[in-house]
């Protein structure tokens, strides 16, 4: 009986270990949000910084929508695998900029979800119009899987 205990321990660790690694939410990859906008988050460097791109499905301008660059940072010391992060999108087709902040979660079905809040700052011509220059909202992103 003494000899079977280490074997059972090793066997249980081998069976549980893959499910533990699957519970980490990873920012890198392609995402889509509840409005149909798509973004790609690139590799995260040792300082927690990452590049990316954002293609919005919605805009308040009449300009043609173009893919826009994003630059962000992930909190590096999160041990639970559900990191907090933030990124800025510098819109290529308008004179506005948006900052997002959020957290990467694993939902009850084991799917990755990014819950975010954003501030969009648009250019206004004078300080009297400053009141209408900033919008706030939320978006929920899910991983975009390639079509088969």
UniProtKB/TrEMBL annotation:
Annotated Gene3D superfamilies: Avidin-like
Pfam families: Avidin
Cellular compartments per GO CC: extracellular region
SUPFAM superfamilies per UniProt: Avidin/streptavidin
Compartment list: Secreted
Keyword field: Biotin, Disulfide bond, Glycoprotein, Secreted, Signal
Domain of life: Eukaryota
GO MF terms, alphabetically ordered: biotin binding
Main location: secreted
Paired cysteines (S-S): 25-104
InterPro entries according to UniProt: Avidin, Avidin-like_CS, Avidin-like_sf, Avidin/str, Avidin/Streptavidin-rel
Signal peptide: 1-21
Family designation: Belongs to the avidin/streptavidin family.
Record's subunit section: Homotetramer.
Name of protein: Avidin
Organism listed in the record: Eurystomus gularis
């Amino acid at each position: 009986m003494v000899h079977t205990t280490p074997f059972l321990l090793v066997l249980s660790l081998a069976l549980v270990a893959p499910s533990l690694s699957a519970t980490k939410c990873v920012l890198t990859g392609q995402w889509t949000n509840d409005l149909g906008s798509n973004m790609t988050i690139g590799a995260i460097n040792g300082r927690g910084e990452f590049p990316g791109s954002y293609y919005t499905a919605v805009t308040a301008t009449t300009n043609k929508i173009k893919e826009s660059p994003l630059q962000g940072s992930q909190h590096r010391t999160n041990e639970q695998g559900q990191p907090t992060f933030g990124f800025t999108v510098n819109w290529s087709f308008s004179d506005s900029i948006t900052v997002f902040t959020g957290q990467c979660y694993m939902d009850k079905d084991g799917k990755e979800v990014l819950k975010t809040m954003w501030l969009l700052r648009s250019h206004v011509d004078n300080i009297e119009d400053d009141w209408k220059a900033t919008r706030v909202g939320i978006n929920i992103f899910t991983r975009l899987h390639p079509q088969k």
